[in-house]
Write a structure and sequence with these properties.
about 160 residues; alpha+beta; seven-stranded mixed β-sheet; 4 helices; 7 strands; about 30% helix; globular
Length: about 160
């Protein structure tokens, strides 16, 4: 089934929240165990828009099947050309190229905004995400040991980057 990628409509934030909460509940893609509310996603969405950062949604006939965004890597002025992205795909739609398409669309948005580097922070054991990023030209630049804790175990964070 095909999908399209465009600016996320505010009216579909409940679907984005549901995807994000499933990721929080069942994966280590997000180092958090606190689910988010619709109000939280609305504030997040508004903050992204106010800062000029994109929130993209992949949509098929069933609704939102994935979303992606990026934001500041760090808040100091010297980092203004670097961004860190986040992409999540609905569990029943993984493996269809949605995540890849969202990262590619975010790279295009970052280029349009004259950003220089895109950074990914990935659970070091998430070999699927690491491989996807490598295929898209990201390189591993470091690994932070045991910086996260979830599901009763310590998690390492692999840092990857791609020049835009």
């Amino acid at each position: 089934m095909s999908f399209t990628i465009s600016a996320a409509p505010r009216g579909q934030l409940s679907e984005i929240r549901d995807i994000y909460n499933e990721v929080i509940r069942n994966t280590t893609a997000v180092f958090s165990d606190v689910e988010v509310t619709l109000e939280n996603r609305e504030a997040w969405f508004d903050a992204k828009r106010t800062a000029g950062f994109p929130v993209l949604a992949a949509i098929d006939p069933s609704g939102v099947v994935g979303f992606g965004t990026f934001g500041e890597f760090r808040s100091w002025p010297g980092y203004r050309y670097s961004v860190e992205h986040s992409v999540h795909v609905r569990t029943d739609c993984r493996g269809r190229g949605i995540g890849r398409s969202l990262v590619q669309a975010l790279l295009q948005e970052a280029a349009r905004m004259q950003k220089h580097v895109m950074i990914a922070g990935i659970d070091a054991q998430n070999v699927t995400s690491v491989a996807l990023h490598e295929k898209l030209g990201f390189q591993v630049v470091g690994e932070l040991k045991e910086v996260g804790f979830k599901f009763g175990r310590w998690l390492d964070l692999k840092l990857m980057q791609r020049l835009i």
